[in-house]
């Protein structure tokens, strides 16, 4: 029988250093992410290689590339770091006595509306529950979910295809969101540019699936991006809307959020056909949704469907 490797003395911080170097492909970038010095990162990697008895990175070229051993170990190391973070998060909850908190994540496109509706739902129907909301891309939300920093998150259904380590992830269809491409009628570029893909545009910083079948992505977004017409990448929805209202850019917005501006003539729809934005709920099979979470989701879904009419 093969001799077992002694790993009792391997600290999770060292594993985290390895994960960071693997993901970022750079000791200097990993040092910044881990908030330590570069020599500390180098020492951690050498220590891990010594204890694992394998080389983890090729250093004989300018590219700092992972070995086959590192590629095999990486998923397990990610799981270990996530599990350690999850334990720490649960301990903080236990120490704070905050067992009634529900932590929700939203993708960047749905986040402004989702946060607004959750605030209303909680104040109207669930004022005995503490609810916190964060916004992010699918990968950052998924990582927060694995680390027990979220109970569930809602984002574009295609976000699932961007994720790895999804063995424990459950993705369920939630609802759809009507979306419009909008611009201010006073925007000067409307009279000087006939090609919509050459208009100045503002979008949030989003992860886009290159194999997406979304009509806006296929027919417009790729061309807009390629032509360099995305002049403003801004996550804050209010800031994006101010740019659009001032006539400096066009954007894509949930119909629910833009309809008042359209009815008053401050905005108008562009002649672009956009598919409904399909949303799904993501949570872990190892941590089923609480009854309160299910109730909040049901009310949220009902609100969105009413507003979409």
UniProtKB/TrEMBL annotation:
SUPFAM superfamilies: Periplasmic binding protein-like II, Winged helix' DNA-binding domain. Gene3D superfamilies: Winged helix-like DNA-binding domain superfamily/Winged helix DNA-binding domain. The keyword Transcription applies. Residues 10-67 form the HTH lysR-type domain. Keywords: DNA-binding, Transcription, Transcription regulation. InterPro entries: LysR_HTH_N, LysR_subst-bd, WH-like_DNA-bd_sf, WH_DNA-bd_sf. Coiled coil: none annotated. PANTHER family: HTH-TYPE TRANSCRIPTIONAL REGULATOR, HTH-TYPE TRANSCRIPTIONAL REGULATOR GLTR. Belongs to the LysR transcriptional regulatory family. This is HTH lysR-type domain-containing protein. It comes from Vibrio marisflavi CECT 7928.
């Amino acid at each position: 029988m093969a001799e077992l490797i002694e790993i009792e003395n391997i600290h999770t911080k060292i594993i985290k250093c390895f994960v960071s170097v693997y993901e970022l492909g750079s000791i200097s970038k990993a040092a910044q992410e881990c908030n330590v010095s570069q020599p500390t990162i180098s020492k951690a990697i050498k220590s891990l290689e010594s204890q694992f008895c394998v080389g983890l990175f090729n250093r004989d070229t300018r590219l700092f590339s992972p070995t086959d051993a590192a590629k095999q170990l990486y998923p397990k190391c990610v799981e270990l770091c996530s599990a350690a973070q999850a334990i720490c998060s649960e301990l903080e909850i236990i120490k704070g006595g905050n067992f009634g908190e529900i932590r929700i994540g939203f993708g960047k496109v749905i986040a402004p509306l989702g946060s607004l509706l959750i605030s209303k739902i909680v104040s109207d129907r669930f004022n005995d529950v503490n609810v916190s909301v964060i916004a992010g891309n699918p990968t950052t939300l998924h990582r927060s979910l694995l680390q027990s920093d979220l109970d569930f998150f809602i984002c574009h259904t295609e976000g699932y295809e961007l994720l790895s380590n999804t063995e424990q992830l459950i993705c369920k269809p939630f609802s759809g969101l009507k979306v419009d491409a909008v611009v201010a009628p006073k925007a000067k570029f409307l009279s000087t540019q006939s090609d919509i893909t050459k208009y100045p545009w503002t979008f949030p910083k989003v992860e886009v699936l290159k194999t997406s079948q979304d009509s806006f992505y296929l027919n417009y977004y790729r061309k807009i991006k390629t032509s360099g017409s995305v002049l403003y990448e801004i996550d804050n929805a209010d800031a994006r809307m101010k740019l659009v209202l001032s006539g400096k850019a066009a954007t894509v917005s949930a119909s629910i959020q833009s309809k008042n501006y359209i009815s008053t003539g401050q905005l108008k729809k562009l002649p672009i056909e956009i598919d409904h934005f399909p949303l799904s709920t993501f949570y872990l099979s190892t941590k089923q949704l609480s009854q309160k979470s299910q109730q909040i989701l049901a009310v949220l879904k009902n609100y969105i469907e009413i507003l979409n009419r």
